[in-house]
């Protein structure tokens, strides 16, 4: 191997990765067949589900999974030896991808996951996994990457039952990288496994405070399971105010999801056309996930052919309190007047009506400034309101010009009732002058 020149070593390196990838794909397929509730085709989801799901199908074919993992390992460890020999720096990964079309960062992450699978069967792979993760920590070019790989090391310790080492690492990562959500989730699971349910709920509260802007559906489902686990055990350490807030959000999500299910194909197509989203070959093209939320909101609350979905459902099948509040909701242009992070409260003003509303939103109260201008749906409840859907954010300096543009647009629009026209006008202004908001809760 040492007699090869650099280009030949790179070719060997890439070949080993490719040969291992063949078995890695088979590994993922084997896992997918063995897991009863396969949520997605994402590699990480599948492997994590293999590692942590205790309710696996009784026909789970461990032998096939481990056979494919071992075959992947054989090829990728050869590639790993060459990777170290070639001394490819973390800062050169993008350049390597551009030149050879090989995503080394993804390969290293996949390799760590393969080792986690093997570690579940045979502890002899623990040292190999430590070697690779420690190498990645040592050679990372930035602090964030180091901490993410440090989390992987903590996760490895948790898998093999070395909970004290795992806990120390999780604490360090949370302190230094507080907006990395998976650390909170794994730490909370560790605490539950070791019987410290109250501590797990405290970690969950920190998770909500620090990570809500970056969490996706997978993380939310995991943390929801942890929350349910704690609730079933009667743990009550989260403040009653926060508990009530999250329970309310859960109820709203349940109702809006079910309302969305009531939307038919024709309404879907008409909504896309009205909002001028790309639609080709019966396929909706969204540039960002937030655009899907805007479309869903319009399909539920917009008046299309004189009918709103929310007014045309069997009310007996829904939570009446939530449904009534949603019917009273309003989509508008709001401005932040004040924030109270300690109480999780934001005071907002409808710039069209000069009316003020009190909103409870954990993350928004910590992240937005006074004067922040945004479109969203406000849902009124007895003690406070809820921001339901993110729309667009605008420069605070643009308020005057936006109001002028809005009035002109409203005169030109001739579709739907006033609230529907208002939504369409704000959507048009947002696409032209604003930025899509990231979910704040």
- Could you describe the largest sheet, including whether it forms a barrel? 6 strands, antiparallel
Radius of gyration, rounded?
A: 25 Å
The CATH homologous superfamily of the largest domain is termed Tetratricopeptide repeat domain
Uncertain ranges: 35-61, 213-218
Give the second-level CATH assignment, the architecture of the largest domain: Alpha Horseshoe
Strand order within the widest beta sheet: 5-4-3-6-7-8
- Give the structural class: alpha+beta
Structure description:
This protein folds into two domains: 6-232, Tetratricopeptide repeat domain (Serine Threonine Protein Phosphatase 5, Tetratricopeptide repeat, Alpha Horseshoe), CATH 1.25.40.10; 259-436, no CATH class. A six-stranded antiparallel beta sheet has the order 5-4-3-6-7-8. Strands 1-2 form a two-stranded antiparallel sheet. The protein contains 18 helices and eight strands. 61% of the residues lie in helices and 11% in strands. The protein starts with 5 loop residues before the first helix and ends in a 5-residue tail after the last strand. Strand 6 (373-380) and strand 7 form a beta hairpin. Helix 1 (6-34) packs antiparallel against helix 3 (62-86), helix 8 (163-176) runs antiparallel to helix 9 and helix 10 (197-211) packs antiparallel against helix 11 (217-232). With 441 residues, it is of the alpha+beta class. Keywords: TPR repeat.
Task: List its salient traits.
441 residues, alpha+beta, Serine Threonine Protein Phosphatase 5, Tetratricopeptide repeat, 2 domains, six-stranded antiparallel beta sheet, two-stranded antiparallel sheet, 11% strand
